[in-house]
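Weekly sync, protein design subgroup
Attendees: M.S., D.O., the rotation student, P.L. (late)

Item 1: inverse folding check
M.S. brought a backbone from last month's batch and wanted to see whether the design step gives back something sensible before we order anything. D.O. pointed out we never logged the input encoding, so this time it goes straight into the notes. Structure tokens as presented (216 positions):
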């Protein structure tokens, strides 16, 4: 038994010497340090490429910070949000859903004054005079009330987009696009779901509490 182990070890050392003399055989994701720690030498090196999750461990292509790791002043739990939002509001605000283009309550809504509040927490987000006709099928704003909206990199669906959320509750609003050539002061388009908003004519937070009754 012992002599067999010694023979195996010897052959292992010989193989390792062989492998290390031919550097290109080393898979791209094994660093010099991990190779040294592997006592089984060449056997492990041959087996490694068939283990798909290895590449995930060594990947340097880390996604940028997502909204999941953010914290907001309004920290209601999922259950608390379900209690005050209707299912469509919950889907869009809390699960980052999107309403169908051209269907939103505020898509063709152009008041001269007033404020669009967050439909979740009632924080004021956009003024009526931020809104412009984009023709994109969702309410479009070229700017927000200062500090009311936060931006995050969104890499879903194979695209790199900038998600916008309510700074107070983290509720998903939509995405912001830059440099599209709109004749607005910023050439930015905050493309916002109507479901994420609630318009108030008086221009201040309505104080009616979050989430009006479902229209459905
Ligand atoms: Zn909010």
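Designed sequence read out in the meeting:
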């Amino acid at each position: 038994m012992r002599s067999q182990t010694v023979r195996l070890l010897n052959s292992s050392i010989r193989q390792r010497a062989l492998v290390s003399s031919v550097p290109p055989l080393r898979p791209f994701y094994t660093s010099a340090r991990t190779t040294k720690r592997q006592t089984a030498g060449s056997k492990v090196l041959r087996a490694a490429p068939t283990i798909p999750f290895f590449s995930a461990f060594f990947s340097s292509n880390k996604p940028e910070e997502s909204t999941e790791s953010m914290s907001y002043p309004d920290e209601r739990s999922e259950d608390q949000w379900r209690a005050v939002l209707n299912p469509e509001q919950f889907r869009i605000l809390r699960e980052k859903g999107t309403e169908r283009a051209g269907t939103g309550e505020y898509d063709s809504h152009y008041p001269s004054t007033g404020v669009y509040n967050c439909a979740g927490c009632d924080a004021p987000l956009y003024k009526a005079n931020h809104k412009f006709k984009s023709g994109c099928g969702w309410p479009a704003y070229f700017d927000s009330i200062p500090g009311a909206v936060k931006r995050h990199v969104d890499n879903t669906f194979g695209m790199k987009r900038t998600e916008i959320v309510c700074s107070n509750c983290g509720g998903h609003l939509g995405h912001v696009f830059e440099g599209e050539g709109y004749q607005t002061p910023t050439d930015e388009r905050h493309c916002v779901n109507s479901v994420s908003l609630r318009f108030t004519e008086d221009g201040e937070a309505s104080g009616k509490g979050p989430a009006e009754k479902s229209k459905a």
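Discussion: Helices lie at 2-20, 32-37, 42-47, 53-58, 78-84, 87-94. The chain has a mean pLDDT of 76.
Action: P.L. to compare against the previous round before Friday.
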